[in-house]
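Researcher: Here's a chain I'd like modeled. Treat it as a single chain, no partners, no ligands.
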Amino acid sequence: MADTTKKNIAVVVGGYSGEYDVSISTGNAIYSNVDRARYNLYKIVIPRNPKAAWYHLIDDDKQIPVDRNDFSVTLSTGEKIQFDLAYISIHGNPGENGVLQGYFDMLRLPYTSCGFYTSALTANKGHCNPVVRSFGIVEVAKSRLLHRDQVSAFDAEALLREFKLPVFVKPASGGSSVATTKVKSREQVVQAVEDAMLEDGNGQVLIEEFIEGREFNCGVIRDAKGKLHVFPITEVIPHGDSEYFDYNAKYNGSSSKVTPAEVETEVSDRIKDVSAQLYHLLDCRGVVRFDYRYNPKQKYLYFLEVNTIPGQTPESIVPQQARAAGISTADLYHMVIEGALAAATR
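Model: Modeled as a single isolated chain. Structure tokens:
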């Protein structure tokens, strides 16, 4: 029987996107590191197939169905588990785009991520970029959003007249650089657009100018007392076959992540200040990572994207930044949980 003196936390993993395996790794890290003396943890899996049943995966790999009417689990003993909090660790659809957030909102179940609207907005880069640009606090790369019907009639020559190569072609709502291509020649354009459209759940493709420079990331979290923590920034330096922070660089070791970044203090402070402002202006919650490119010749800082469900394995960027700030990986997870529980009572 579950200890009724402790909060029941559902660690929600999986999802429908190409980031399924990344989500499983994030969820496993959270599940393994959170203090069981403080919380009852339950791993909830949303399978790749949207039509498949959700289930609670217990430690002997037995699957127990989730009742989606109230997001509960009934154990073999007959005990019904109702959750106090959902720790969303799904990257992409449906955990990072507002779908799960809307479902939990209807059930009045607190969760660890940004709310429905912020999640939906920031998940689509083509919609988020104009909003960030309107704030006037950071540069945003020139881009064009293509919808499904526009993709079918796509004119590569028109693109090359509008953008100078190289350009990035990516799913508008994708993450982990899945189906993202750095296009260097006309011959690559059509295939890159088709690949991105197939990965994006809404068939939307973002074409974005290439920004020369260095890539930096900054994690931000609000704790249970309402204090905002802006972590030391990280520089990502791709190497080997990776020319940018692609999937291989992120998850297969083809990059170096330097935390704190070896950069001028004024640049680091600028990135941290913009990140804190964006966290507020976009109405973020939980732990969030902001990604940037910095052009040292022009001294321009360019916003790339917001990750409202950033990777949270010990090797991921945000946990590295937290450790650089004196916060262990386990304590980072506890901050996320306690922050969400406290926000739900405000």
